[in-house]
Amino acid sequence: MVGAVVVAWLLVRRAAAGAQVDATDRFSCQVQVLDVWHQPAGKRATAGAVLTADGQVVISGRGTPVGRYDVRGESPAPPAGKAVFMLSAGEVEVVLTVPASSPAAARLRAVLPGEHS
After folding, report:
1. In this predicted structure, what is the pLDDT of residue 69?
2. CA–centroid distance for 29 within its chain
3. What is the dihedral of CA 34, 7, 10, 44, to 10 degrees?
4. For the chain, N or C: smaller number of CB within 10 Å?
5. pLDDT at 24
6. The whole model's pTM is what?
């Protein structure tokens, strides 16, 4: 059991290290996984994220699926003071929330499909 935890930790560290090579922005966020009906599945979790030079978001954190996600859209009516983005990686979809005033929100908007920076 302990060996499996150590191996998982090493894999997460290695994935994050690989993302840092071309990272342009690192930030903290709240992430919530969506089910196949696009409804929240489980609780929101705090995670670390990196916006890479190719416009993908690499998420790593406990309780979140680690991986590279494409930014698909932004909520037109987020809660006050928040910016909410929809991300996807194949079949997995997540909702990512950051403070509306954070530099990460502006950079995520810049990589939205149809946006030009």
Report:
1. 95
2. 7
3. 20
4. N
5. 59
6. 0.75
